[in-house]
Amino acid sequence: MSFLSQTLSRVKPSPTIAMSNKAAELKAAGRDIISLSAGEPDFDTPEHIRAAGIAAIEAGHTRYTQVDGIPALKQAICDKFARDNGLDYDPAQVSVGTGGKQVLYNALMATLNPGDEVVIPAPYWVSYPDMVLLAGGQPVFIRATLDNAFKITADQLEAAITRNTKWFLFNSPSNPTGAGYTWDELKALTDVLLRHPHVHVMTDDMYEHLAYDDFRFCTPAQVEPALYDRTLTVNGVSKAYCMTGWRIGYAAGPEPLIAAMRKMQSQSTSNPCSISQHAALAALNGPHDFIAENNRAFVRRRDLVVDALNAIPGITCPRPEGAFYVYPSIAGLIGRQTPDGTRIDSDEAFATTLLEATGVAVVFGAAFGLSPAFRISYATSDAALAEACNRIGDFCGQLR
Question: How far apart are the first and last CA of the chain?
């Protein structure tokens, strides 16, 4: 009899973390490594947010708080939803957790039973399916291909829904593709959901403020108010506010669901870090001008990477609407060989061989449910990105 839980056998470690760890090991061994695998901004947390964290320590805010968030932060989250999304919530409808991942996990654990299905567009964030499996549910995937700009259609969503569907798990702008749904595109999906009242919507809006060019962010309950009572809207401060290590995520939704999530959190981690909550309060209530400044850098980096990759024969890289990722197809490289005879028969082989040969760390597309492709995070310096693209170009140019 195995000592470990059978539940654990249903999931796998995060491939993005695995690639980051491998890159770190090579760097520690003296290799010249450029890691483009981790999804976090390279900008420092803004000064006024850092100052709020320090002030919280000095003021003695270092003890336990309410399980799912201090009242002031919950009110700031309500204000944010009203200000940015036109959604009205009370603090009792808000949950604050240790990052967006915990909030999503709490919701799935609190709602899924054996046989329940969760519809997830692919490519997807690597943790979605495994969290569903840990909660005892079954992920059901819809392929969002390059031909449709990595977006699913209403017909695809309609076909994926069954009587066992409990959640539609949605993410825009997307990790890993950066694809963003317009109001009309999202309205087509919400029209489908209106025909299936047993299906709830879990929307991951973590990249809401990282939207570029003419793209305008919108969220399901905003587009279709009739879904308000069936939607959990998840967000956080990690990406737009450069606070990945502070670990604060939040969600708003139906009060019974929030109460169930609170019960889950009370028996797992209890409250998020008290200091981080006060910093998040400053982030939501304070100046936001730095976001536009950061986004100008992200657009410049995006264009640098997209143009460089599209100049490489065998690679096709669309220009995303948001987030800080690109998801280039390498269909034109599959089946080729390196000079030493290593065959590139999958995107995992591509990423592994690329790292070993050039020191550039990317994440292979199979980890996100759609191959053959790879993900680059361009949340790093222009110089590092230019050098990485040069190395990728040289590597691909040697394939035969």
Answer: 49
Q: How many CA atoms lie within 13 A of 273 on its CB side?
A: 15
Q: How many domains does the chain have?
A: 2
Structure tokens at 259: 């109460």
Name the token pair of 112.
């899924």
Q: What sign does the CA torsion over 57, 61, 66, 72 have?
A: negative
Q: Encoding tokens for residue 123?
A: 């490519």
AA letter at 293: E
CA distance 9 to 240: 34
Tens of pLDDT, residue by residue over 38-89, are 889 999 999 999 999 999 999 999 999 999 999 999 999 999 999 999 999 9
Exposed / middle / buried, residue 2 (Cβ in 10 Å: 0-12, 13-18, 19+): exposed
Positive or negative, the CA dihedral 206, 208, 209, 214 is positive
Distance CA 146, CA 143 (A): 10
Give the per-residue pLDDT at 23. Answer: 84
Please state whether beta strands 200-204 and 231-236 pair in parallel, antiparallel, or not at all (unpaired).
parallel
- Which CATH number belongs to the domain containing residue 102 in this structure? 3.40.640.10
- 214 and 70 in a single domain? The answer is yes
Which amino acid, one-letter code, is at 20? S
Question: What is the mean predicted confidence (pLDDT) over 321-336?
Answer: 98
Q: Residue 143 carries which DSSP code? A: E
pTM value is 0.95
Which parts of the chain fold into alpha helices (H)? 15-28, 47-58, 71-85, 100-111, 127-134, 154-160, 183-194, 220-223, 255-266, 274-285, 289-310, 347-358, 382-397
* Assigned token pair, 264: 């889950």
Co-location of 266 and 315 in the same domain: no
Residue 76 sits in which domain range?
63-285
Contact indicator for 56, 280 with CB cutoff of 8 Å:
no
Tokens of 296: 């100008």
Rounded to whole angstroms, the Cα distance separating 328 from 34 reads: 18
Side chain identity at 200, as an amino acid letter?
A: H
Beta strands 94-97 and 249-252: pairing type? antiparallel
